User: What shape does this take?
Amino acid sequence: PEAGVEELGALLARAGARIVDFHGVLYGLPVRAPSGAVDVRRTDGAEGEATARLLLEGHAVPEGLLPTHGSALAAAVERAGGWLYVATVGGVRAAAAVLTVADGIGYLANAATLPAYRRRGCQRALISARVADAAEAGCDLVTSGAEFGSSSQRNLERAGFRLAYTKPVLRLTARAGSAQART
Assistant: This one.
């Protein structure tokens, strides 16, 4: 197996790929957890689009892209049979997240909090609400992913998730002489 790993590494390097990060994949059992001071609810329709824009804003997507990308994200979540969630702090929309359910598995697909509302329990509340909804939907397992070693991974682990494995995040760079490098 070691020779196979080295060979794969050499092939990736020749293709212009490099490791830029690591992503952890986590899993847990769907259980109900008590709610905290952050209010979380599912959204849909026009509120779903606004929630999708909030999610993108939490990921620092440029403001000019929020309307079109938010609409596209809301439509993609709906097509996947997923749900968008919004977390409010003192009545202010502070964070958003996605849950998809398929074949008895809930996937906590995405989440983000606006910078001004970080470290107030928004992600903990969003994780708890989505896990509870996955349990209600009959899921036997919930999964999620996060940048390895990040606060997102720590939030998931505090909620009872365990690290299943890590995987490298690769970036392809243009090679000298390639069409991509010339444009």
Observations:
- DSSP finds six helices and seven strands in the chain.
